[in-house]
Amino acid sequence: MMTVRRRINRKKTLALALILLAVSVLTVILLLNRNAERVEGTRESPEEARIPAPPPVETEEFMIPAGKTITELLAPYGFTPSRVIEIREATRQVYDLARIPAGQKIRLFRQAGEYLSLQLDLDPERYLEVDLRLSPPSAAIKSHPVTRQLVLVEGLIKDSLIAAINQAGEQDLLALMMAEIFGWVIDFYVDLRPDDSFRLLVEKKYINGQFSGYGPILAARFTNKNQTFEAYRYVFPDSGRADYFEASGGSLRKEFLKSPLRYARITSRFSSNRLHPIRKIYRPHYGIDYAAPVGTPVQATADGQVTFAGWNGAAGRMVKIRHKNAYETMYLHLRSLAPGIKVGVRVEGGQVIGYVGSSGESTGPHLDYRLLYHGRYVNPLSWKFQPADPLPARYLPDFEQKVKVLQLLLLFPLNYF
Asked: Please, what is the end-to-end C-alpha distance for the chain in angstroms?
């Protein structure tokens, strides 16, 4: 009986093993068939195998030297004068190639001996692209992809604002941007003291990982002579115009900027009895002399209308502006006037009206800046100006919400997390 049972169990085991073996063989066959189908699907047809890879696109890049025309620049690359004229005419509505900017770069893209396109850098962020495959060519101004990073910059004044900004690892331009914001309340040559401090939030822009420039300063705090000034940028939602305000919504602007130059050194102050450097006699000096390099931009200190622009004897080349509330300002010894500055033109506070020079009776490059009130000369450094209008009440709720975020970032910036 036991022998019979053992024989039956052996038969069952053998049958089960044969079934498992058959299933395994069938599975292997199915897998092999699927792999064969995949290989067959990816195998190139004879026609596809005969198609050669396209030739690579080559790039030729060169810097634009001063005094060269677009015709002269493209001639070495096989562009005939008639072809250049065709390109210029086709792009004129987008950009005039007669005004190519020296110092920028041109890139030519070529494939199999044929030029595909031309790129001309206009500034760090924009470039002109001309499609040369079309006849006539087509053109468009495009932008490089820009990455923006919000950073905190802070420092202490030891010598100058620019030196402190450089010490913080930033460029001179950022110092000028901050001087422009606080220029209504701080004269960055006269008012600065050692250990004055600043902290600001600014956008930095990068193209292909390389720093390309600054975006706007979003918030700034400056402590000068133990008094702290704050500025928060607000973009008006209906017009897109931006301005800076205190946290309460009060305007940082006054009736006049504290200086007609963003950054300069005072060499002579307002005086009723000063020795004239040329005539060698004592006489009143009703202005402030700012020493600055020739060509330094001079800005109007308030909104107004130009009443004089030209040569004025010993004052040299001069601009005079009439402002509201019986104020007038004068800007003497200019090298030249800014484009468009003439009698009758209206200007805004901070607008460039001319450039520092040494015209007229002058011993060296400087600006003589004068302020009149009701026709009488007053000292620009000690005169008390009224603040400008605050932020309109209808914008305050939106502004206050944004200020709370910016104040938090000034204390705990993003790069701390």
From this structure: 83
